[in-house]
Write a structure and sequence with these properties.
single chain; 274 residues; alpha/beta; TIM Barrel; eight-stranded parallel β-barrel; 12 helices; 8 strands; 43% helix
């Protein structure tokens, strides 16, 4: 007897299941999260992968870049997300300088993340330059998600957040790096802000899932920073962000109403008292 769609959606998401989804053409839905409450909501809605992104540096901590995020920050937030997610695959972003120094240090830090948080995988940015670290991790049983294209931890090197891979030489490098990451053992690759046709070529060439963010419709899955998708961060409006809600105005109205009720002695009333 075969599984129904409901049965399949209820199953725990694993790295193997993501590869099965690629083979069968089922799209992979991913979002970022940084705490247990939001993770639980996304998990109940059927999100397949929750990334504890180093975007927490921007969203939670108020930094201009992701660079200040520490290993301890990542571990703290990933612990919380794991507590909220029972079905989704939880992936933790390895922060800047936690994997770039040596493959051994990268391996130790990745192992610490998995041991202390209970997450299922780590993600790191880079291509050929990180393949030794990826191999070291995957050989020891640590699942690794790659990240190519625009890499926020390298923003000072890039000098801007413009799309990557728009010229032939860089496009060829990104394509070749994707092949190298797959060979090194990555179970999936995030492709950020690259031309849709390049993302399609990579998706067709590798046997592991590609997860796009600003990389067009041909990837095996998509990811967005949840505060962008829900309309909480409205001062950031790249073309690849679709607003599925306008929570900023809803929250502002609710808080303003609460504030007015308190100041006008309308809250609490006797029915709301003991």
């Amino acid at each position: 007897m075969g599984y129904t769609t409901k049965d399949l959606e209820a199953k725990k998401v694993t790295t193997l299941r993501l590869q099965e989804m690629k083979r069968t053409g089922r799209k992979i839905a991913c979002l970022t999260a940084y705490d247990a409450l939001i993770a639980e909501i996304f998990d109940e809605c059927g999100i397949d992968v929750i990334l504890v992104g180093d975007s927490l540096g921007n969203i939670v901590q108020g930094h201009d870049t992701t660079i200040p995020v520490t290993l301890e920050d990542t571990i703290y937030h990933t612990k919380a997300v794991v507590k909220g997610a029972s079905r989704a695959l939880v992936v933790a972003d390895m922060p800047f300088m936690s994997y770039q120094v040596t493959a051994d240090e990268a391996f130790r830090n990745a192992g610490r993340i998995l041991k202390e948080t209970g997450c299922a995988a780590v993600k790191l940015e880079g291509g050929k330059n990180v393949t030794e670290a990826v191999s070291r991790m995957t050989d020891a049983g640590i699942p690794v998600m790659g990240h190519l294209g625009l890499m926020p931890q390298s923003i000072h090197k890039f000098g801007s957040y413009r799309a990557r891979g728009t010229d032939p030489d860089e496009a060829e490098k990104i394509f070749n790096d994707a092949l190298l990451l797959e060979k090194a053992g990555c179970f999936a690759i995030v492709l950020e802000k690259i031309p849709a046709e390049l993302a399609k070529n990579i998706t067709d060439a590798v046997h592991i899932p590609t997860i796009g963010i600003g990389a067009g419709p041909y990837c095996d899955g998509q990811i967005l920073v949840y505060t962008d998708m829900l309309g909480l961060t409205v001062d950031f409006s790249p073309r690849f962000v679709r607003r599925y809600a306008n929570l900023l105005n809803i929250i502002k109205d609710a808080v303003a109403n609460y504030c007015n009720d308190v100041k006008n002695s309308c809250f609490p009333n006797l029915e709301e008292s003991y």
